[in-house]
């Protein structure tokens, strides 16, 4: 079966008719009809029922739909895989604490596999290492909002709800959800002075509350693990993405979803003025990796990558001694 038959078949399905499919494929409508006819002859069954109101899939067409999509995706992946072997060079890819949650390890592994001629240096960027010019030190960065700098190219990796970790002793810990105003009425865990103000402000929800500054209590925390310890100790609450509970455990605190606040987004970002084709190719492949869920659950071990990912999830002091300055992937 020829791929061009399947391409035309899917175009008719996706564009709801022969005329729109022809326009999308830059073919004449008669050429589209001819290829569908050839496909039906090869299958020995009609794939579309034609009527005045349009076209509809037959039972045979329904049966063909998913296999056709898989075949074309596999064919495109083969072509793209061959093209990617032509890329060469070195890239430094930084990963902020928490990374892209469970997507981090498979994403880094798959990028290494897809670009065999590229040497990736995967580095753990601690919270205090973030600054507006960080993209002058790394080529790409896996980070949550706020993104560094004013103009970045961002490929979304993960979008999830925001919640708040509360000491079990707080009355609000029994709530099913909490509003922004209810959270701002609570004391918050104090952030380390080394934590960039943009991050402290963002997760203190100041950008949503017209600059309101919450009361902050307790010893300063540097990173998610120390923050969770301060919450457990009862000093205050801490706002974070839903994956915090999965990555670090709930311990002696409750994690309650917030309503009326934007989702948290993790992205792979690079400088807006970086016009290197290799960087653009990494963005394109990252989007494809995220879209294809199956590669993101692959197993296996890669010491360089695993050390960086593990460092992201360790307490700051332990991470600094274990991760070093960088690792070759």
TrEMBL record:
Q: Does the keyword Transport apply?
A: no
Record InterPro entries: LysR_HTH_N, LysR_subst-bd, WH-like_DNA-bd_sf, WH_DNA-bd_sf
Q: Which domain of life is it from?
A: Bacteria
Supply the SUPFAM superfamilies for this chain.
Periplasmic binding protein-like II, Winged helix' DNA-binding domain
The HTH lysR-type domain sits at 1-58
* Name of one Pfam family that matches: HTH_1
Keywords assigned: DNA-binding, Transcription, Transcription regulation
**Family that this chain belongs to:** Belongs to the LysR transcriptional regulatory family.
The record's PANTHER family line, in alphabetical order, gives: HCA OPERON TRANSCRIPTIONAL ACTIVATOR HCAR, TRANSCRIPTIONAL DUAL REGULATOR HCAR-RELATED
This chain's protein is named HTH lysR-type domain-containing protein
Q: Which organism is it from?
A: Pedococcus ginsenosidimutans
